[in-house]
Model the fold of this input.
Amino acid sequence: MKERIEQKFREIFGAEPIMYASAGRINLIGEHTDYNGGFVFPGAVDKCIMVAIRPNGTDTVHVYSLDLDKRADFGLREEDAPKDQWARYVFGVCRETIKRGGKVEGFDAVFAGNVPLGAGMSSSAALESAFAYALNDLFNDNRIEKFELARIGQDTEHNYCGVNCGIMDQFASVFGKEGCLMRLDCRSGEYQYYPFKPVGYRLVLLDSQVKHELVGSPYNRRRQSCEYVAQTLGIETLRDATMDDLNRIEDKISEEDYRRARYVIGEKDRVLAVCDALERGDYETVGRCMYETHDGLSKDYEVSCEELDFLNDIARENGVTGSRIMGGGFGGCTINLVKNEIYDKFIADAKAKFAEKYGHEPRVIDVVISDGARRLD
Ligand code: GLA
Done:
């Protein structure tokens, strides 16, 4: 992929580029907790977005998406925003860097990636983080600190792409480290690396290859529900709420908002339970929590869909240790913690049953936990 991108850059711009990459992510547990001030447990993966880039000495950006075979040209002022969604990610990163006092001048760029689109592995965060990292290195002597690079990506989603996402994806993409998951406290920004090598198990994603989400609106509505419940409780985020608190205001909120908050409160505790279990090497508990998360996301938070519930059922039937929907939801993939000895049978069964019902096999993605944003030599 790297050579292909470099080659295209030379072809279009007639110069040698500098290469950067940033990764997609998985999340072991802690879903829809980030914007509630809770904990998440992601890691970067070996699927990434690569960017070939070079300052061009003008005040215009020329960027080409190799996968889409599309080019966009835009200036760096707010009114220069491009129309195409894919180009708005790049434009947003430039603008958010500038808003923070960072320097951005014109550049030429070509990018491509192998993060599956729509799988819930955050291809957009990988794109934002790769550009945020590159602009920091090329124009700002790496003065912008890493957490701020993640926020640049997050604010790009908020201000240029219509998704009021939390910080998890961009954090994972920027901070990812080979072989390690990371527990991030989304309220304080504190994080720890957890080496993750579950002996006797494999982590695998089954991508349903379906996407039901329409832009960011159902996601944003979930967030609004949480904020409304927190407000009713007189607290800043649901991080500070207990089930007792929630039950006290049950008659003041809708039944739907009650269920949304019930899921978040449970999930917050599950992340901590999983951390403890991992320290003991207790993968049965990790797996049980994953199933509980799936049930919560499906029934209370209602971000699952028929295809993902079906994949989850197949995992249960096969005795898979843990399985759940991963990422924002409304399609995408399940993440599965599977004992080595049943792996082949489970994958074969999932492929056959899913294909029989939906006409296509799920894509099998083996998880390799890798580095996040970086300059490539
Ligand atoms: C999306 C968002 C994240 C997070 C997850 C759900 O991936 O971008 O911020 O909220 O959904 O955990």
